[in-house]
Structures are given as C-alpha cells and as structure tokens.
Amino acid sequence: MVFRKQGSKTRQKLLETASQNRIKMTPTLEIEGREALRDVVASGAGVGFVSEAEFGFDSRLVQIPLREQGLFMHETLICLRQRQDIRVIRAFMEIANQ
C-alpha cells in the first residue's frame, strides 16, 4: 500500500475508519504529494488512496470509490479579504454557497 506522508488528512481519515472497522493498514511506501502518489501507483508499486476531489483524470489509473460511513472530507473555499467585494469573486462565492 502506498500512503501519503504523516499529517495527510486523507491518510488520517482512512486510518481512523480502518481502525474503527478493526482493519490494520500498514504502508509499504510513504509519498510526499498526491501527484507523486499517483505516479508511484501508476508505475505498479501498489495501491494508493486519495480523496475523490484529488483524483482528477489519469488514464493509467482506475478509481475505486470507498463507501464507508464517516469517510468524508470537507473542503473550504477562501479568498483574499481585500478582494471579496470584486464582482466576479462575489458572484463565484454566492454560487459556491448555494
């Protein structure tokens, strides 16, 4: 198994959920970033875990969704305070909040 480095939110959520289900998961490799993780998995070194939002598109890989209770991550949209009243940013934020 190929895991992101210690401190990765994806890794933390995955290991918490596995532990709650009495599943022991031990990484074979620990990788710094998600792009590197994708490349390592694509090379055939093992299976890896990324959030659905981070998967993107890579024709070398197959996405297998994990559907487990509590295995959700929240995303946050931010902008520079001084730019929050720019019309296009304000419109985008309004759409995102719907």
Description:
The protein is mainly alpha-helical. 36% of the residues lie in helices and 6% in strands. The chain has four helices and two strands. The chain has a two-stranded parallel ribbon.
Jot down its keywords.
single chain; elongated; 98 residues; 2 strands; mainly alpha
Proportion of residues in helical segments: 25-40%
State the secondary-structure class: mainly alpha
- The helix count comes to 4
H-E order: EHEHHH
Give the percentage of residues in beta strands: 5-15%
End-to-end CA span: 38 Å
| Total DSSP E strands | 2
Number of domains: 1
Q: Give Rg in angstroms.
A: 17 Å
> Looking across the biggest beta sheet, what order are the strands in?
1-2
C-alpha geometry: elongated
Q: How would a textbook summarize the main sheet? A: 2 strands, parallel
Segments where pLDDT lies below 50 for 5+ residues? Answer: none
Average pLDDT, all residues = 88
Topology:
Elements: E1 2-4, H1 9-20, E2 29-31, H2 34-42, H3 52-55, H4 87-96
Parallel strand pairs: 1-2
